[in-house]
Design a protein that fits this description.
Largest sheet: 5 strands, mixed
Structural class: alpha+beta
Strand order of the largest sheet: 2-4-5-7-6
CATH architecture of the largest domain: 2-Layer Sandwich
Oligomer: single chain
Radius of gyration: 27 Å
CATH topology of the largest domain: Heat Shock Protein 90
Amino acid sequence: MLIAGCSPRRALDEPYRSFLDLVAGQVASAIADTQAYEAERRRAETLAELDRAKTAFFSNVSHEFRTPLTLMLGPLEDAISHDGLPAAVRQRLELAQRNAARLQRLVTSLLDFSRIEAGRSLASYQATDLAALTRDLASTFRSAMEKAGLSFTVECTGLDEPAFVDREMWEKIVLNLLSNAFKFTFEGGVTVRLTQQGSGALLEVADTGVGVPAVELPRLFERFHRVEGSQARTHEGSGIGLALVHELVKLHGGAIDATSVLGQGTTFRVHLPLGSAHLAKDRLKAANGSPTRTAAAQSFVDEALRWLPGTDEA
């Protein structure tokens, strides 16, 4: 509150009136700024609430989808394994199995993303030979790369100290980046390189594909964002993969960036700190044997193989 009055010891002349006008103008401007700030804050709170509601919706829907999908896949696998099954029936069952597995992977990605958004994704970090794990994961894509006529180079050198990662999350990081590279590369090749950079590890996944327009690069890791009009082996996709990679890298205290030249290719770089000083102590766990890839790795490759010419995309 401001109370202003005229001094009895000074004439209310033009300079005096001008001074009072300036004071009134400053007060009005401050009030307007405050009102605008409050309106923006309320708008941000509304958007945040909508975002939380959307995240909760995706989480609930993903849970509801995953249960019947799991119940479908078991009987399908049992039916396909039966001897004496007619070829036409087996073909239809395999088609149903492929699409159910594809839908299950999408649902799992949605669930992973919604958990991260809600702060409920709890990683379990353990000391890992990151070079061996990355090399093993990358090798699953070799057959797909060769069938597509692409060169595939994997260079994973040993690190001075173990990296503490959640192995399933690291698997999703590597496989999503490889799947993305394969999807947009028609000639040339893909290179996976893991090296030590100072006190951290650097993972690079580079391709000689179609590239990304410069205007799209800042939005590359936004959820549900897709580069319109880009040539690809398939136009399927949810726009979740790179956004999920971005969030998983952040959970490891790392960072990811991308550089690209349109028509020449794209390189993704994941910067990961080594050691465990940057991680919550209660999320560390003892290593339990050699790093191995899970069954999820094969599902990425199976989907990639469907994108090749002469294969049944269904």
